[in-house]
Amino acid sequence: MVIKGLKNGPYEIKLEGKKFVVKREDGEEVKQNAIYLCRCGFSKNKPFCDGSHGRCGFEAPEVVIEVK
Ligand code: FES
């Protein structure tokens, strides 16, 4: 598993060979290869990133966390 804090953006989480199944409020299930979690605090769709980090001027360095 790799967790990346993208430069000035969200956490990107990927599990090699696996997909995430995200259940939305309306019951719809969406399969994704990665999920992006807000780390700026301004998303209106927490815990997911909605792009607000780009509008609020969020700054953070890139960081890579590898779980072995
Ligand atoms: S990191 Fe993207 S909205 Fe917060």
Q: Can you describe what's shown?
A:
This protein has 68 residues and is mostly beta strands. The chain has one domain: CDGSH iron-sulfur domain, mitoNEET-type (Ribosomal Protein L9, domain 1, 3-Layer(aba) Sandwich), CATH 3.40.5. Helix content is 7%, strand content 35%. The chain is built from 1 helix and 6 strands. The protein has one helix at residues 52-56, and strands spanning 2-5, 11-14, 20-23, 29-32, 34-37, 63-66. The strands form 2 sheets. Strands 5-2-1-6 form a 4-stranded antiparallel beta sheet, with no helix packed on it. A hairpin with a 5-residue loop joins strand 1 (2-5) and strand 2 (11-14). The longest helix has 5 residues, at 52-56. The structure holds FE2/S2 (inorganic) cluster. FE2/S2 (inorganic) cluster (FES) binds at residues 9-10, 38-40, 42-43, 49-53.
